[in-house]
User: Fold this.
Amino acid sequence: QQRDLPTSIWVFLRTNGFFGMIIPKQYGGHGFSAIAHSRVVTKISSRSVTAAVTVMVPNSLGPGELLLHYGTEEQKKYYLPRLAKGDEIPCFGLTGPEAGSDAAATQSTGVVEKRTIDGKQVIGLRLNWKKRYITLAPVATLIGLAFRIQDPDHLLGDKEDLGITCALISRDLEGIEIGQRHDPMGVPFMNGPIVGRDVFAPLDCIIGGREGIGHGWRMLMECLAAGRSISLPALSVGAAQMMTRISGAYATVREQFDTPIGRFEGIEEPLARIAGKTYMMTATRTLTCGALDAGEKPAVLSAIAKAYLTEGMREVVTDAMDIRAGAAIQKGPRNPLARTWDAVPIGITVEGANILTRSMIIYGQGAIRCHPFVQHEINSIAEKNLKKFDKAIFGHVNLLFRNATRAKLLAWTGSRLAGAPRTEDTVRYYQHLSRFSAAFELLSDVAMGTLGGTLKRREKISGRLADALAYMYLASSALKRYHDEAKTTANYNLVRWSVEHCLYRIQEALLGVLENLGSAADRGGPRVPMRVAAWWLSWIIFPLGARFRPPSDKLGARVARDILEDREARINLTHDIFVPPPNEVGLGTLEAALDKAVRAIPVETKLRDAVREGRLDRAPGYMLDEMGLKAGVISPAEYQLLHEADTARNEVVAVDAFDPEVYKTLH
Assistant:
């Protein structure tokens, strides 16, 4: 209730190097891999979102990451040990009132000028900025800043506009206003605005020194690919695993109509979604971190992981809230869901709002970055090199016809001609993904060819193409996880649910593109070619119509039963999170109640059998226990098991209530 982490936690984080996880050991950090970094954040987030965000930011896009890749040796030697030990608390100022999604539109400026300091002429920067939503800003001692350099007096050369640049600014410089706090959805991590008015800083504050001038945007985009792959996906996985653990236990312990609510089909449905999406999200997190650890900078995959895992978090948390119902909306120590629910919009919004990421960034970046010929075509036009252009364009046309042939053959044969690992019991899923991959590539080429430069403004079309690409990646991640793990029945059910969910979403996305490609002509595109293209593509890609369906009720029931009844499956699905001791209110007492409820199941079965056979009359549960003991159906020890289970059940079903004076201090 103090709206901050306890002092002891800040000391613990500093002492144990939590702010230096990505900093190499030679500079006093831990040098963790991406997957190790991610798992630490996941574990912390399952305990405290505030603590997780506090740890995430210094290890994500910010001074540490930028210094590692672009700093001078002097900057690295000075700053990195201080950041690793927590002597410096960093923040990074990118977003401003005028530069949100369009971060390159920043009005933050640094004007090159000379000043006399201690009797010496010093060339430096007169900085002015207004930044907001900056995490750790209220407590930061070192500010990373993105701004546009201007050199009106030509002190550095002939150019006046030198481009976006990144620098490190000490909090103590004159002219900085810092310390105010925003209140992001009531989640009390440090977040606030920073304003700088005529702040003078020497040129050596620029990351990379003078060589770094004008390279800030490239630095940010390259580092964002790494940070965005780890921090929010890790937070989302922690939330999803927590929801799985809580919902599975609660649906077993909570009874209505003398039956655990998990046995009702209405609860089975969201339980299956929670478990299936948790499996898929964890798999995606692992595969994406694997790409980072292999040395890649996967800009498109990082955008997919950020957008679709935070969206998955929103869906999973919503389902968990629905299952817990009235108890979920009463805040207090007994409710482990409320803080996560409050934090969901934060993950959706930061590091690139999901609407923007889906509708512009994923496909907008991927269409050119990942295409084997488009970049060459653009470069050859810019160079006016006809020979290179001919080679690129003929290669592109050849690729188009090969993709059309492949997509048609795979669609018309039900994917059976696609190559796939025959030793896998998921072979048909591999084949279907190959089919959709060919269809996506063909549809993407045709969309670019018919819409041309207007495609970037057809955000609904590009958003659906992003959906198709994203769900192909999520399905591939789930298959990779199943390939690597033990082939248990529970894992098979989970991978089937995950991939069937993804295949259906891919189909819906591609159909959405086809249905709307022709109508895009009404907004300025070439009418006849686009409608002909849409008809031709539909005939190739979906000759028999939409054949894929969401996961069946039968499969969903199996997945739900696995997290209700299979303890090992439930632990495997939630192995990254922190589980508190059994005497701690919240998840701890819920886990303890689950253990007692499971031990009592055989005794409850004996009582139900006695009622069915006529040896006991029908009665409410608490009366039936007494009747069974008196009739000798159950022993005193078995009665004690039932009593302990009921006591534990009543404890976890209870909700918090506060005296009026105490309540005033809670918000």
